């Protein structure tokens, strides 16, 4: 394998590991704690092993009690290295046999936690150097009655590069071997070998072939892969050359460590995919609309709109009403100022509003309004979390439930910072001028009549100009008053139409402000959870691909 190929494959492992690590970070508490902890340990293991990659390949001989694993280990080494005895279990600590010189394996063996080490000068029977780089490990029995032995075997198996599963004609179908060890290794076919040892004990001439075929089917059924089972007899040294050749092929590729770790990452990522959905739900527009409606009610928007309506009519009366009765409306309190909403906040920033104006005088939300908000936020959370695993659905529901106090303050400030007035209509000024002209005409006619009355009282009659049969002063007084009242009534009708339009315009403004609050306190937090879910799902899929 060329350096470029090695670097490319290493980059793939590192990339997958980074994807898994990022998925753990983005998934956080929404991933299953046990699977998440196992994945975190795997990320640490991958980075530690990859830092020690070198040119050594760790091959573990794993088997059940009585499988002849240690005898097979000694036969492969060519001398008695691992202790063998009649009393079982015998192997309590792992023993490593090291082929080839060159690279110092001490750091790797220390990481494996193996103290018993034996250096093999050459590969007997396979030609010098055929197994250079091999570290063959004899493990304690994985089904040992001693718990410490089982723990030691599992610990080193978790850090080995290649598995050589050694079984015998009596225990080849053992459930522990297949369920606990082979079944979880569906991504490790390239770094596994299956050995049927002690074939010399099979009396039937065709028995060994039948058992090997049966074992092959069982392993395939486990999902671990389709293997050519290697038959051996450690006692008679049958099949050792085949086993050495198979191990030598794996060692010669110099990528077993990476293949093992890639398989681990793929399997772990696939397990974690159980904790995410197949896709992300979308925010329901109807649920968002209902939320805005509920928040508008809770924020007192209807009260504000009523005040806007009345304020428009009051201002209209001050501008286009009959001048002789305008003072009456001036005695009434201003609707918006009563709510501390009378100023025009368009000229200041929202920060200035919060610091200078404080809270409005809007009444607090009623229990019914608060219940409507709770229901609306719950509906948003349920719609956004539909189809997600329980932990993610709970996270969405929590994100859709803002703190009541913060939400109330934000709604109040949103109302206060929304401009509630607009430029007065131009026709107000025109009617105002016309009203004052008519008022002056009426006043002029009244003054004229008063003067005529005074002169008549003093018996100094004056000629009064007429227009037809009517004296002009009377026409001025009556016409000014009647036309003024008529224009005021017409303007009042027009003002009602304008008030409704102003109310609708302000309602749109307030609706936008409240929608911004809903977006900030509900939609955005929910979207962030969904985005985390999407990121986690995509990263796990990339790591498992």
Write the layout of secondary structure elements.
Layout lengths: L2 H25 L5 H19 L5 E7 L5 H9 L17 E5 L6 H7 L3 E5 L13 E5 L8 H11 L4 E6 L7 H8 L9 E5 L10 H16 L7 E2 L8 H14 L2 H17 L12 H14 L2 H20 L5 H5 L4 H4 L11 H8 L9 H19 L4 H10 L4 H13 L9 H32 L8 E2 L2 E2 H73 L1
Parallel strand pairs: 1-4, 1-5, 2-3, 5-6, 6-7
Antiparallel strand pairs: 2-4, 8-9
Helix pairs in contact: 1-2, 1-9, 1-19, 2-9, 9-19, 10-15, 10-19, 11-19, 15-16, 15-19, 16-19, 17-19, 18-19
Strand tally: 9
Terminal CA distance reads: 23 Å
- How confident is the prediction overall: mean pLDDT? 84
* Element-by-element helix/strand order: HHEHEHEEHEHEHEHHHHHHHHHHHEEH
Helix- and strand-based class?
alpha/beta
Radius of gyration, in angstroms, nearest whole number: 45 Å
Query: What kind of sheet is the major sheet?
Result: 7 strands, mixed
Fraction of helical residues: 55-70%
């Amino acid at each position: 394998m060329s350096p470029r190929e090695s670097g490319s494959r290493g980059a793939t492992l590192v990339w997958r590991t980074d994807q898994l690590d990022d998925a753990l970070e983005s998934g956080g508490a929404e991933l299953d704690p046990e699977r998440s902890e196992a994945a975190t340990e795997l990320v640490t293991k991958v980075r530690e092993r990859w830092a020690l990659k070198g040119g050594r390949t760790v091959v573990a001989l794993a088997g059940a009690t009585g499988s002849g694993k240690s005898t097979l280990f000694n036969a492969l080494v060519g001398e008695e290295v691992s202790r063998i005895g009649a009393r079982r279990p015998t192997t309590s600590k792992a023993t490593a046999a090291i082929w080839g010189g060159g690279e110092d394996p001490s750091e790797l063996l220390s990481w494996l936690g193996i103290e018993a080490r034996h250096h093999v000068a050459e590969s007997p029977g396979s030609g010098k150097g055929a197994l250079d780089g091999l570290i063959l490990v004899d493990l304690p029995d994985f089904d040992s009655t001693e718990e410490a032995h089982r723990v030691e075997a599992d610990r080193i198996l978790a850090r080995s590069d290649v598995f050589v599963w050694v079984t015998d004609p009596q225990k080849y179908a053992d459930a522990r071997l297949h369920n606990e060890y082979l079944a979880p290794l569906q991504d490790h076919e390239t770094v596994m070998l299956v050995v049927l040892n002690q074939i010399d004990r099979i009396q039937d001439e065709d028995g060994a072939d039948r058992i090997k075929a049966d074992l092959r089917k069982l392993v395939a059924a486990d999902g671990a892969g389709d293997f050519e089972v290697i038959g051996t007899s450690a006692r008679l040294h049958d099949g050792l050359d085949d086993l050495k050749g198979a191990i030598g092929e794996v060692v010669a590729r110099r990528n077993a460590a990476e293949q093992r770790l890639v398989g681990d990452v793929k399997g772990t990522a696939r397990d974690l995919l159980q904790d995410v959905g197949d896709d992300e739900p979308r925010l329901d527009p109807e649920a968002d609309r209902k939320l805005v409606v509920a928040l508008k009610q809770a924020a007192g928007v209807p009260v504000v709109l009523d005040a806007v309506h009345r304020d428009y009519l009051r201002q209209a009366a001050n501008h286009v009403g009959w001048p002789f009765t305008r003072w009456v409306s001036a005695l009434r309190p201003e609707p918006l100022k009563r709510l501390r909403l009378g100023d025009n906040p368009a000229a200041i920033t929202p920060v200035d509003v919060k610091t200078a104006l404080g809270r409005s005088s809007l009444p607090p939300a009623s229990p019914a309004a608060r219940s409507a908000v709770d229901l609306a936020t719950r509906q948003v959370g349920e719609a956004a979390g539909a189809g997600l695993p329980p932990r993610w659905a709970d996270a969405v529901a929590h994100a859709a439930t803002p703190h009541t106090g913060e939400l109330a303050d934000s709604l109040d400030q949103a109302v206060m910072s929304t401009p509630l007035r607009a430029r007065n209509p131009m026709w107000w000024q025109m009617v105002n001028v016309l009203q004052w002209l008519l008022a002056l005409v009426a006043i002029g006619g009244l003054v004229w009549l008063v003067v005529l009355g005074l002169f008549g009282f003093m018996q100094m009659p004056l000629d009064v100009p007429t227009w037809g049969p009517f004296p002009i002063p009377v026409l001025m007084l009556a016409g000014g008053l009647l036309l003024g009242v008529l224009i005021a009534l017409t303007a009042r009708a027009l003002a009602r139409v304008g008030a409704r339009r102003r109310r609708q315009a302000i309602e749109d403004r307030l609706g936008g402000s409240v929608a911004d609050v809903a977006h900030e306190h509900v939609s955005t937090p929910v979207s962030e959870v969904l985005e985390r879910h999407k990121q986690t799902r995509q990263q796990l899929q990339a790591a498992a691909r």
